[in-house]
Amino acid sequence: MKPGKDSVAPGARFGGGIPTQKIAAIRHDKAGLTGMAGAIGGGGLLLSLASVAIVRGRRTPNANIEAAARNQAGSPPRP
Question: Which has fewest Cβ within 10 Å: 1, 4, 41, 49?
Fold first, then answer.
């Protein structure tokens, strides 16, 4: 079987020798990458804020529980 034009010679090793053709660099759109990074960062920030809000919960004191705790401790009730 005859090797194709882009095939590597059987005795060649990785990195051995000078490439026969120029290597084309891939260009990435900087604005697109910046926008994607901003979207990922903003999403991470929103997830962080949501997790803090869920963990902390609603911190409104319950007046009945506080009054019962004061009465058990022997302190006078607050008006």
Answer: 1
Whole-prediction pTM = 0.44
HSE toward the beta carbon, residue 59, CA cutoff 13 A: 5
**CB-CB contact of 38 with 30 (8 Å):** no
Angstrom distances, CA of residue 33 to CA of 13, 41, 67? 35, 12, 57
**Torsional sign, CA 15, 20, 22, 28:** negative
Structure tokens at 74: 């022997």
Give the pLDDT confidence of 19-76 residue by residue, as tens digits. 677 878 888 899 999 999 999 999 999 999 999 988 887 666 666 776 777 766 555 5
